Amino acid sequence: MRAFIFDKYGYYEDDEFASEFDYQGWHFKLEKTDRNEEELEELNEYVKRLENLFFDSGVSIIKNRDGNLLSKSEFGDCALVSIKNRKMELKDLLQMHTFFKDNQDQEYTIKEMLKLWEDKVDLINEKVIPSIKIGDYRYEEIMTSIIFAMGLAENAMQYLAELELDLGDKIDNLTLTHKRLYTLSSYEFFSPFNLIVDNPMRDLAELYKSSILNNESLLNTLNYYNPSKQDVSLLLARILFPTTFFDQLDDYYVLRKDVKSNVITYKDNANALLNNLKNLEQNLTQKYGIRPIKWLN
After folding, report:
1. DSSP 3-state of 104
2. The whole model's pTM is what?
3. Distance (Å, rounded) from C-alpha 293 to C-alpha 277?
4. Under a CB-based contact definition with an 8 Å cutoff, are residues 186 and 27 in contact?
5. Which SS3 state, helix, strand or coil, does residue 132 take?
6. What is the rounded distance in angstroms from the CA atom of residue 185 to the CA atom of residue 87?
7. What residues contact 16, with CB distance under 8 A and at least 6 apart?
8. Which candidate, 179, 281, 296, 279, places its Cα nearest to that of 235?
9. How far apart are CA 232 and CA 288, in angstroms?
10. pLDDT per position as a tens digit, 244-292
11. Residues ≥6 apart with Cβ < 8 Å to 212
12. Crossing angle, helix 229-240 and helix 139-167, to 10 degrees?
């Protein structure tokens, strides 16, 4: 990997296996992509709007020595992204959501969202669970964690289906959001390959599940969005769906990463998670009048 990055881009990293590195206050990461050169050019132009919104944010897909954004490698097609390291805050997220609101010509529906969740659950059932070794001395704890997470996922999907019946299929208030937002790092915030059009509650739910937001800070942050009943319902459904846990299972299955300790920790924290969910659900239903989740109470 080090040789490839040096040959293609001229950067020499100490770690010969690293696909990302820091250099003079910037973070660089080699991202796999299925986009062609023209699509990468369009994406690079699009993120310039983020540059204009956040002055000196330094978002860019870097051209290689051949003058192209797309690079071919033995690992597949990829592109090098560079973003200036800086501290991001919740107010920056609100600013991005507000700026790109109503500037989207895309549509998104609850049916589409539900299908993605169903596919994820099917993948866990059909691929990930059979790959876990029964002989592992912590097999029962691992399976308990997975069963608990799958239960939350099933309830989240049921809640989503009920939301469609209550308020319709079309998801409103689309804006620029993130596929994942585990932290408020500038790289996760600005990476062109992490941007997606969705309801802004997607980002708030991910920050909550990553413990960046707790019940109190989430409720306070919601005040700045003036959310609709659909917004808040989507937020609660997304919080129920264990995205972060499923991502860890994906890492285990695809990348063969050792995530055992994280999986066990998830089980150990199950009661605290449910208590927090119960408290949050009560606050959201009382304040916004959304459909309650009876089994939590």
Report:
1. coil
2. 0.93
3. 10
4. yes
5. coil
6. 6
7. 1, 2, 3
8. 281
9. 7
10. 999 999 988 887 778 888 888 988 999 999 999 999 999 999 999 999 9
11. 183, 184
12. 160
